[in-house]
Design a protein that fits this description.
Elements (H helix, E strand, L loop, with lengths): L3 H32 L3 H17 L4 H17 L5 H28 L8 H25 L4 H26 L3 H27 L14 H7 L1 H14 L5 H30 L7 H32 L6 H31 L4 H28 L4 H24 L2
Helix pairs in contact: 1-6, 1-10, 2-4, 2-5, 2-9, 2-10, 3-5, 3-8, 4-5, 5-7, 6-7, 8-13, 9-10, 9-13, 10-11, 10-12, 11-12, 12-14, 13-14
Length: 411
Amino acid sequence: MISKLLKNKVLGIVAIQIFSKITGVLREIILANFFGGSLLFASYLKLMTYGQIIAIFYTEGGLGANLMKKFSLMHKRGMSFVKIRRQSIAISIIIFFLVTLLQLLAWKFIITTDYNFIYIIILSGLSSSLVFYHNIGQIILLSKSNYSNYYKSNFLRSFVYIVFIYPLLSLFNILGEPLNRLLSVFVQYFNTWGEVSKTINESKGKKMEFTQRDFNVWVFLNNNSIFIWYVLLRMYFSFIEGIDIIYISYGFILASSFDGIIIKSFSTYVLERSVNIKYNIKKTVLYGTIVSAISIFGAILFGKFFIKILFGLSHKFSVLQLENIYKYFIVLLILVCTNGICNLVFQKVFAGRRKIQFLESKIYMLISFAALFLITIVSIFNDFRFLHLVFITIIFSIINVAFMYRLLKNA
């Protein structure tokens, strides 16, 4: 039987996942009501894409996979996090300049809109640096099994974002979005580091610091394979005139929300439950496949109606534009669900087998770059078509399933 403490922890994580995804969809509905399929909003998304390139290396999942073991050991031995905090501040400053530089280059060479994006670029850089600093603090607390702050921090971020986005957009137009993002991240950072500071003050042992061995690039890539693929697609669309990047952005938000509310909630329950019981990989994959299949068929049947309610009532999108959002949503949902099922296997089979994990990560990256290369080559000889994305998604999903099948045979 699962202990009451473990049940509460799992339910807390699932509840935060669901709340975060629901508020994320509400945020996109508000943005759609303000900007619809405008060229200004498409330009904004293109600009943000180049900040997301750096985000691959400081997501909470990637940092946690790299640092959780080290931080847990530091807590057990009473070691000090003072140097860790100083190094985190220094890395945050570097992230600010990297994100700002990439977005300035994108603004100069890629984006053709006359809008002055300089303030948006500065706000985006500040948000990115704060996100990294917050994530380090969050991992320090999670490595000490402090889940209450995790729940509170993520709730505050989502709540602040959804409450203030409408008035800020009304006052500052597109500038209101990065302002609101910075505000929500700041609230999250303030809540987390207020608690972390107490932990740091309590630890009086040896002062540990980050080393190069603490950050393995392949662990980051492995934990963000779908996000990387999504960023690569957005980079490709940033070079294309028009507003296709809006369709793929909304499609991915809906797909990841669908995945977070249904698939990842199931995955979290299974993976956390497996800590105390024998883990049956094949049975779990079977259940995950059934849940994913029901989700996909449900989206195919009711997706158009769902999207019409979410985005159509504002009358900012034409029927054709809503159709495009629906198509991207379905294809990306298939991709996200396939990857989610495979991760159920990967996270357990690769536990303690880092060499194999790194090999799998390298293969993922090769597939991602090959997918982007294939889209580019095809589009050189022919204008980009939706079928190109379908074709590449199917290839990516088949390779995912092939990996999973190979692992299951040896499970």
